[in-house]
Amino acid sequence: MPHCHPQTSWRGDKTVNLPGLDVESRPRPAVPSLYIQTGLLFLIGAAAVIALHPGALMASPRHNPVTLVVTHMLVLGFGTLITFGALEQMVPVITGRKVTSERYSRTAYALFVPGLLLQLAGFAAWQPYLIAAGGTLITLGTALFTLPYVPTLWERLRSDLTAPFIFSSLIYVNLTVFLGVASAVQLKTLWWPWLFWHGLPFHLILGGLGWFTQIIIGVSYKLIPMFITTTGAGDLHVRRVCASFNIGLLLALLSAAGSWTAGAAAGLTVVGVTCAVYAWDVRGMVKRRIRRRIGAGMKQSLVAVLYLILAAALSALLLARALPIDGLSADRWVVVAGLLFACGWVGSVILGMLSKIVPMLVWLDLFAGRVGERDTPTIAQLIDERAVGLGGIGYHAGLLTLAVAFAAGHPVAATWAAALFLLGVVVLAGTLIGVWSAR
Amino acid sequence: MEARLDTVREALRSVVDPELHLNIVDLGLIYSIKESAPGKVHITMTLTTPGCPVGSAILQAVERVVEQLPGIEEVDVELTFEPRWTPEFITDEGRRFLNML
């Protein structure tokens, strides 16, 4: 056995100053569960709206009420709420300290969720003030939830691999929702015309890349090795990935603000290359794994990388106007790119990781004190892996067929594909929620 | 003394990582087991990652399982992340088990 350099000692229930071991600061599962379960309900809602209105989604996405409702249900209701719930559990574990109180997180939830419902009503009825009012509550809820994490993560920037990713992404999510409110106010008051023409790309880049893609990449570097038993990428390499991603992102945003197209393209290219490096790293981690079998949930998380590549390639072609399409066809391809990104990349990663995180939450709550006892179940035994697999098949078959149907402008095919997608979502969400109810 | 330490090692095989389904001995988490004084066992071990969510549960179990062994009066569990655990530390038996899963 290699030579050991002891760092600290474990003394029963006494708190030790070591990440992941501070028993007292471990959050109770109630708040993460609340956020995650609500997020799953929003996913079902979004899939239902897609199934009910596939035709409306094929129209121009700009100021399209149905597109806006579905998009915000997916990115705020599903993606952001679930990510917040996961952070509530994960950050205290990796930083080894209590970050925020349960009451504080519940207050943030009480602002965020009603705000989102108000905003969705505003989109559906096309009432800019309602959208702005809902957006303001969302912005407050987001700030209230995320700000306590900033100083904690700041202190761990050097010592924890994922902290720099999470730290930066929390800044971006605040900017994203703030810009959303400003854009909603702009719709009615025209207080800043620049925002009308240029705000949307910023909103999309901040949210899609700065928030979701960054936090997914960062967390994946930690969770994939844990979940499939493999050697992770080197610390220095991962830090370079984080730096490269953020440099590219800032270059793109600042260049776009200054209307410097070449700079924006260069920045997005750097981000794209960094994502390609990440995809290569994931491939390496999968190849190096010790455990041959990969669970159905983790397969979904890994497949998500292919969606990222597809969405990025399609977006690049659309931005470069390299596809022989125009007008309504181009609009449909924009929707396809958004669908592949939101449901393919973000959705698949989140659902896949949840198939590990949710059983772990429940296991920690019920069985953490019973390791070593004969009848203690493993974490995997708490979830119906077969249902996850079947739900995943419906989800991905529905999603890919829907993308093809949208691209082809085929409403009947889109309706059937959306129904299959909804079925997959219901099975996956139901299976995950079932883990809690099995308690 | 060797026999007693072997007993401790065997007992630790009942502590199974709930995520990987593999016991912590074959997982390579136990770096050393020593008897520092009669009846006093000193275990140096690691976790798969410093931010392991089930880390405290595993450490508690190690302490509990060893304390229950006859002739053991005191258990000192020392945690280290140097060297950092990698899958290379998994024993051949552990690898066979994981590949069967």
Number of domains of chain A: 1
Based on CA inertia axes, which overall geometry of chain B fits? globular
Helix content, binned percent of chain A: over 70%
Radius of gyration of chain B: 13 Å
Content of β-strand of chain B: 15-25%
Number of helices of chain A: 14
Number of helices of chain B: 3
Provide the CATH architecture of chain B: 2-Layer Sandwich
What top-tier CATH class of chain B fits best?
Answer: Alpha Beta
Please provide the count of β strands of chain B. Answer: 3
pLDDT < 50 stretches of chain B:
none
Instruction: Determine the N-to-C terminus distance of chain B.
Output: 36 Å
Radius of gyration of chain A, rounded? 21 Å
Summarize this structure briefly:
By secondary structure, chain A is mainly α. Chain A has helices at 30-52, 54-57, 65-95, 102-125, 128-146, 149-155, 163-189, 193-228, 235-257, 261-287, 296-319, 327-367, 385-408, 411-437; one strand at 8-10.
